[in-house]
């Protein structure tokens, strides 16, 4: 009964923020010099159960929510879709100086080549191995036509029939169908597994930056290893997510807990 009451109290106080990014600070918590998995163990012990139930309901209504949460975590640094699990470190605070242009400068665009992808990840302390593993998050979710148009019309390292099928929802001319969507993983778009890498080997990566991971370069062997072993992909993905969560976190009195996630207090 006490645990249930605690969970309800925490849910009412902080689940709106935690739903957007489970990994950020909630509404309560003590100062801490680093992130840890037990950050809320005393102040809000029922937080994980509360958040999990709301996330599951949200994903049941809209399966894209799972991909959106993963992307939000990536931009700041579970779902019933399968995939690995791990203990998430929490206690991260929101920045008071968040910059849209700064984020765009640090996040690889879908037109990136392998060298640029590797460089941008390295700038955040993530290896090329981390990059390839984390790119597997594209096993779920969708992309806008404007982000894959050039790849399906101009690139040669793409399966012809796959390109034509995507052209049917993404006209060549800019300004037409820009917001039309296509699945990043055309085989099993709502299941978190290793088909993303199988698509790359078949030259069916939706984004130019996806297909760059298997294009005769230094990452081909790693992609092939994930095709052969879903377990290896899951293990490396978890390692990469934990490393990404540890990128320059704001903790303790640094940063803030936003009342509205879209703007500073």
From TrEMBL:
Annotated residues for binding of Ca(2+): 139, 185, 188
Cofactor(s) recorded for this entry are:
Ca(2+); heme b
Any one Gene Ontology cellular component term annotated for this protein: extracellular region
According to its UniProt entry, the protein's GO biological process terms are: hydrogen peroxide catabolic process; response to oxidative stress
Compartment(s) where it occurs, according to its Swiss-Prot or TrEMBL record: Secreted
UniProt binding sites for heme b: 138
Which cysteines pair up through disulfides? They are 145-170
- Plant heme peroxidase family profile domain residues are 22-265
Q: How is the cofactor bound?
A: Binds 2 calcium ions per subunit. Binds 1 heme b (iron(II)-protoporphyrin IX) group per subunit.
Residue positions binding substrate: 108
Q: Which UniProt keywords apply?
A: Calcium, Disulfide bond, Glycoprotein, Heme, Hydrogen peroxide, Iron, Metal-binding, Oxidoreductase, Peroxidase, Potassium, Secreted, Signal
Q: This protein's superkingdom?
A: Eukaryota
Q: Give the GO molecular function terms.
A: heme binding; L-ascorbate peroxidase activity; lactoperoxidase activity; metal ion binding
Endpoints of the signal sequence = 1-33
Reaction catalyzed:
2 a phenolic donor + H2O2 = 2 a phenolic radical donor + 2 H2O; L-ascorbate + H2O2 = L-dehydroascorbate + 2 H2O
Q: Into which family does the record put it?
A: Belongs to the peroxidase family. Ascorbate peroxidase subfamily.
Annotated protein name in UniProt? Plant heme peroxidase family profile domain-containing protein
Question: Which organism was this protein described from?
Answer: Miscanthus lutarioriparius
């Amino acid at each position: 009964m006490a645990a249930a009451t605690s969970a309800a109290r925490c849910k009412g106080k902080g689940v709106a923020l935690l739903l957007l990014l489970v990994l950020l600070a909630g509404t309560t918590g003590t100062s801490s010099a680093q992130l840890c998995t037990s950050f809320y163990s005393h102040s809000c012990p029922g937080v994980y159960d509360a958040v999990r139930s709301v996330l599951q309901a949200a994903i049941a209504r809209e399966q894209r929510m799972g991909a959106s949460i993963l992307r939000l975590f990536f931009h700041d640094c579970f779902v019933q879709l399968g995939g690995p699990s791990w203990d998430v470190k929490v206690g991260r605070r929101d920045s008071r100086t968040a910059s849209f242009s700064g984020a765009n400068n640090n996040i690889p665009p879908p037109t990136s080549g392998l060298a640029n992808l590797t460089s941008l990840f390295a700038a955040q302390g993530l290896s090329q191995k981390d990059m390839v593993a984390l790119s597997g998050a594209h096993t779920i979710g969708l992309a806008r036509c404007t982000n894959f148009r050039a790849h399906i019309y101009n690139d040669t390292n793409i399966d012809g029939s796959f390109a034509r099928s995507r052209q049917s929802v993404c006209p060549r001319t800019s300004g037409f169908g820009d917001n039309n969507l296509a699945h990043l993983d055309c085989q099993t778009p709502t299941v978190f597994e290793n088909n993303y890498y199988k698509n790359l080997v078949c030259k069916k990566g939706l984004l130019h930056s996806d297909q760059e991971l298997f294009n005769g370069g230094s990452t081909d062997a790693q992609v092939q290893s994930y095709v052969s072993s879903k377990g290896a992909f899951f293990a490396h993905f978890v390692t990469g997510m934990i490393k990404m969560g540890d990128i320059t976190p704001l903790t303790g009195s640094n940063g803030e807990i936003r009342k509205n996630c879209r703007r500073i207090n």
